[in-house]
Amino acid sequence: MDSFRLVFDEQRELVGEVPPVTCGLCAAPARGRLLEEGALAGSFGWDCDCGALGIHAPLYDLDELYDELLAAWGLGVDSPDVEPLAPVGASGFLFATYVDGHKLLQQLFNRARAEGALVAATQVQVVIEAPRSAGLEMTWDVLWARAPRRGE
């Protein structure tokens, strides 16, 4: 499992580059970058020379990131099959639904495979450092896909 540190300044801006990680499809080093579009803006992505794009996507957020991931991978956008939102209490304003991240990941990958994409999931160990913070250690899920090449 790859591991790296991310350092942020007082304005919560990344200091330095996003480190490379091992591609989940070909095992070559993939270049890191901050993503800039849609709901994934500000998240972390990795581009591999094999054509794969890896994206840090917490499984508990897959219901919100599902169509954004497909679009980032160059695939047709679709909505996940999730339980409908249900009101919490009597307020009528707060909603909650259980998100089965592993089931959504399977659904997402099946959707991507239906378009001929290759997919994989890996994990990386990350230490996040910021002013007045001792460092937060986390394990991130990185979801990889490579859309079919022209003529495939």
Describe this structure in words.
The protein is α+β, with helices and mostly antiparallel strands. The chain has one domain (2-146). Helix content is 16%, strand content 34%. It is built from two helices and ten strands. It has helices at 62-72, 101-114; strands spanning 2-8, 14-15, 21-22, 29-34, 44-47, 53-56, 86-87, 95-96, 118-129, 136-146. The protein has an eight-stranded mixed beta sheet. Helix 1 (62-72) runs parallel beside helix 2 (101-114). It starts with a strand and ends in a 6-residue tail after the last strand. The mean pLDDT is 88.
Short characterization:
With 152 residues, this protein is of the alpha+beta class.
Fill in the keyword field for this structure.
alpha+beta; 10 strands; single chain; 34% strand; globular; eight-stranded mixed β-sheet; 152 residues; 2 helices; two-stranded antiparallel ribbon
Task: Outline the fold blueprint.
Layout: E1 2-8, E2 14-15, E3 21-22, E4 29-34, E5 44-47, E6 53-56, H1 62-72, E7 86-87, E8 95-96, H2 101-114, E9 118-129, E10 136-146
Parallel strand pairs: 1-9
Antiparallel strand pairs: 1-2, 3-4, 4-5, 5-6, 6-10, 7-8, 9-10
Question: Total domains, how many?
Answer: 1
- The radius of gyration is 17 Å
Would you tell me the structural class of the helices and strands? alpha+beta
* Number of E strands: 10
Which range does the strand content fall in? 25-35%
Which stretches of 5+ consecutive residues score pLDDT under 50? none
Q: What's the shape?
A: globular
Main sheet makeup: 8 strands, mixed
Question: How many helix segments?
Answer: 2
How is the largest sheet built, in terms of strand order? Answer: 2-1-9-10-6-5-4-3
Q: Which whole number gives the mean pLDDT?
A: 88
